[in-house]
Amino acid sequence: MKDGFIKAAAGTPDVRVADCEFNATEIIRMVHEMEEQGAKVMVFPELCITAYTCGDLFWQENLLEEAKVQLVRIAEETADVDALIFVGLPLEYKGKLYNVAAGLNHGEILGFVPKINLPNYNEFYEARYFTSGENLDGTVHIDRDVYRARYESDTESDDVEFEIEMSEFDGFEELEELEEDEEPDYIDENDEEEDEELYEEDIWISPNMIFTCEEMPKLQIAAEICEDLWVPNPPSVAHAYHGANLIVNLSASDEVVGKDSYRRSLVSAQSARLLCGYIYATAGEGESTQDVVYGGQNLIAENGTILAESRRFVNGIIYADLDIHRLDNERRRMTTCQFAPDLAPEGQDISYNEVLFTLEREETKLTRKFDSRPFVPGVKEERERRCDEILNIQAMGLKKRLAHIHCQNAVIGLSGGLDSTLALLVTVRAFDMLGMDRDKITAVTMPCFGTTDRTYNNACSLSKCLGATLKEVNIREAVNLHFRDIGHDPEVHDVTYENGQARERTQILMDIANQSGGIVIGTGDLSELALGWATYNGDHMSMYAVNASVPKTLVRHLVRYYADTCEDQKLAEILLDILDTPVSPELLPPKDGVISQKTEDLVGPYELHDFFLYYMLRWTFPPKKIFRLAQNAFAGEYDDETILKWLKTFYRRFFMQQFKRSCLPDGPKVGSVAVSPRGDLRMPSDASAALWMKELEQIRILQTQVLVWSREDVNLLLLW
What we know:
This protein folds into three domains: 2-357, Carbon-nitrogen hydrolase (Nitrilase/N-carbamoyl-D-aminoacid amidohydrolase); 380-603, Rossmann fold (3-Layer(aba) Sandwich); 604-656 and 688-720, no CATH class. The chain has 23 helices and 20 strands. The longest helix is centred in the middle third of the chain and has 25 residues, at 380-404. The chain starts with a strand and ends with a helix.
């Protein structure tokens, strides 16, 4: 449960229609299997104790009684399991039959949640047997001692009835011999009280029930059953308003062609709409196939993402690590999704019963794999679709700005690096959308102390291939003059040396834009802005920043996508060479004609920083949790010391450099994370990082102990 993680499981047991004992045995077996995997929330299908396809057998009293017998058995035989368990059964209450989900925890039956929406169309005839539990609110009395005796007697020999009768008779004879003031020594009043408390219970039955974990109060669970999800206003909506952030669904959904994708979309969409986790367990093999087939398509979703899905037509268990803190943070952030009882719409402002359950405090061993590149889709097709969409968003933003100010010219500082390359590609696309000549785009190359032949030649070739106007302005002399004016030694390669070049370049771009009546297109990306890796009033400034919300890890894929789809071999070759060039501002002199200043050597790997940025801003996770997720995502790629080192750098720079982000130029937002002061990030420039740095200092990395054996130790070991 550390960091808000909880392992959930959805299982489809083998069943036999109307064989409650067999079904209960399978459920118990699967509970212990789930326990071994660390699951703390376990969900089984609708009516799994009897099977869903009993038909008119649901009217048989002995089936209903046996279902309760086996429910008590399941509760008792899983009493030592540290989990909240949901099983389905038919339950008679006040002369009506209900399809219910029973919540079990440490041997206790916590409550019964009845199904509200009963399908009675096509192959479904539930209203023939069951009553809707919509307005149900009461308690069910379960004499567990009686049902416990029933299932225990079933395990004895065939002569059990005769033996019980004889025992009762002998006891009667013995009682007659007692004196009036004597009591039989085998009767213990304390035991009777304990048994009554343990086995005779009044249990809530209501659709309006929240199961709250005592050790993790933010974990609040509610149940709905099968068809409840398929209606226009599912009960889970009201559950969410009353605090539930994890919905379980006990289902028996049959298979017809195409239904699986619709079912998947329902679960995914409901988890997204309610900002919740959703566990869906459905019936499978073993149900009657007289008219339909059940496939056992179990699903676990979190805020729109399917975390786990079972193979259909094969009974089994799926597991997933749900992040409750992530869901809670998202609910707090989303102002249009305020889930609170007093905000519930009319008809959903109803009272709820809260039922407490307990779990041991322990760390959830994560099996969930976190993507090390959260901004970059892992699937090629999705990545290509995303890249095309982003290029269009960037181009549409620039198109609107150019059209609005009646601008016919654009100026870009073209270095031969990734960011300026992407900015030029976007500008070309925007000009094409407007039907404007590409030669109105002025690509300016400004070689100076750190410029290499490779980047210079790529800049020139790229401009020519795309049809832009190339302009070269060598800034060496101007920068040296500036250094003389301010009294700076050009042999001192400090921040003044570097930033002097960057500001000179920006001045030139602004002046050329003034000459042509154009605007300067900014090239800086999101990752640089997060770290403050930009020269204030240098490359930090422009008139429209097309890359401002594109992280560095995604910039590479956008350029690669353009290379793969441009249908121009020469252009593709240039773009691929740019992709192969080390990321550098080229502000320090090269060594032997090769780039000497590599950005990632100074600020750290961009894939790490993009990961940190995503989970800090998008999900508002604290440093310790981000570190834990990074350990998971970058296992085998970066060691813990490296991750922690650059995580500290990230937080330090992020807080120190906010003043640069507070005055960013306009630019289009392309993803869920952005740092515009007019949009996503309203952060004071003077905010202290002390709280976050303090938490980082508390992280302790366990070092692997290396045992050093002496020769005497080795000899003793060999003798032993």
